[in-house]
Design a protein that fits this description.
433 residues
């Protein structure tokens, strides 16, 4: 692949966002916290059904594969809305845009919690998809405008940490809530969280007018001129699709293949979350030095974790059926899986900012679109495989895709560590809480 340095002077991205007037460090940190909580909320909302497919399907009388559309639909919509909204927003105040997008999350979850038919839930998930794509795309470049220059790298890392935290903590917490109070309560609580975030955004963010938004040509030119960005998009599709092929159906896998009882699923997913946070920290530190090596390591670990279900059913469970069965194999599976996937977001985001440090908004928009499209593709393909072949076909297919990512990464040999000036968001790896 061509050296990243060749991509830094192109005109692929929109001009850097204007810096806000000097602000106090404390107010800036509060604003960063509000944006981070917003990203955490929209990503948790997107992934919430993962741990609730069985109860939702049972209550609304649909199959597990059909229930997986709750993940597919917002992913598809978000993939389209991320680039479209960054172009359509033009010079609109980003504070108002983010607040409006969070209001959609509130409405979507209120409708889902009260829904009596699966079609109503899917319609609400369309609204959610619009919010996911737009919020993530706009929030990615806000650190430069919220805090003093010396704090921009750390603030950028914290904001992107909301994505990782949602993946490794939001889903387990939502699953546990659903087990204790029902899936409708879980949806309602995420809606209440979104309402609180909406208030925080309005109160804590300054006015954030844009001098110039992205143009459609910016989004087309960046991948065309940057081989490293093209490789990053391919890696995103392979890794995220592979992961969600299996993870969307992690609950039925645990219950049907390992005999894990209903009461243990949420606990095991919380263990997955703890392992994922550890993976996020480890990958964040490594990506600052070498994004390519970090992504390669994460891809190899994820491939091994997705191949494991073919072997783990043969392991004896010393805890025994009296404790719900499958606890030990389930713990082994989810610990390795969480550790590997916890590094995906930070590793890929570091790759993109190293590939296009002076086109961060365009690169982030494309990355968000690819990430969300891959979530939808993984959930959809997994649903087809689960319904038409067998439950074990989903993780097997995921392992194949992640192995392909390993091969692609080994052939991408010239991705250096991000070396942008310290005043830009590329100076520190995002995705680290």
């Amino acid at each position: 692949m061509s050296n990243i340095q060749n991509n830094r002077t192109g005109a692929a991205g929109a001009a850097a966002a204007p810096r806000a007037p000097a602000r106090s460090a404390v107010r800036g940190r509060l604003a960063v916290a509000a944006v981070t909580l917003g990203i955490f909320t929209v990503m948790t909302a997107e992934l919430l059904p993962v741990g609730l497919l069985t109860p939702v399907g049972r209550d609304l009388d649909v199959s597990a594969g059909t229930a997986g559309l709750m993940v597919t639909v917002p992913g598809l919509v978000a993939a389209v809305s991320a680039p479209l909204l960054t172009v359509a927003a033009g010079r609109a105040d980003r504070r108002l845009v983010l607040a409006g997008l969070m209001a959609l999350v509130v409405a979507a979850h209120a409708a889902s919690a009260l829904a009596g038919h699966f079609a109503v839930v899917l319609a609400a998930r369309v609204l959610l998809g619009v919010s996911i794509g737009g919020f993530w795309a706009f929030a990615g470049g806000l650190a430069l405008r919220l805090v003093p220059e010396r704090e921009v790298p750390r603030a950028t890392a914290v904001i992107f940490g909301g994505v990782s935290a949602a993946s490794v903590l939001g889903v387990p917490a939502g699953t546990l809530t659903g087990e204790l109070g029902g899936w409708r309560v879980a949806f309602a609580l995420v809606g209440a969280l979104a309402l609180a975030v909406l208030a925080a955004l309005v109160l804590l963010l300054p006015r954030l007018p844009a001098e110039r938004g992205l143009r459609p040509a910016d989004l087309v030119r960046l991948p065309r001129e940057s081989p490293a960005v093209r490789a990053g998009l391919a890696l995103t599709v392979l890794l995220v699709t592979g992961h969600f092929l299996a993870y969307t159906f992690v609950r039925p896998v645990l219950q049907e293949r390992y005999g894990v009882g209903d009461g243990l699923v949420g606990v095991l997913l919380l263990g997955y979350g703890a392992a994922g946070l550890a993976g996020n920290f480890l990958a964040g530190a490594a990506a600052a030095r070498n994004p390519r090596r970090t992504v390669l390591t994460v891809a190899a670990g994820l491939a091994a974790a997705l191949a494991a279900p073919a072997l783990l059913p043969a392991l004896p469970d010393p805890v025994g059926p009296a404790a719900g069965g499958g606890a030990v194999p389930g713990v082994l599976l989810l610990a390795g899986w969480g550790l590997a996937y916890g590094g995906v977001s930070v590793g890929l985001q570091s790759w993109f900012l190293a590939a296009a440090p002076h086109a961060a908004e365009a690169a982030t928009s494309l990355y968000v679109a690819a990430f969300c499209l891959s979530i939808a593709a993984g959930a959809a393909l997994g649903g087809v495989l689960v319904d038409a072949v067998a439950l074990g076909a989903a993780p097997a297919a995921g392992a194949v895709l992640t192995l392909a990512a390993v091969v692609l990464c080994t052939r991408t040999t010239r991705i250096p560590a991000a070396a942008a000036p310290a005043s830009t968001p590329a100076a520190a790896p995002p995705g680290t809480p």
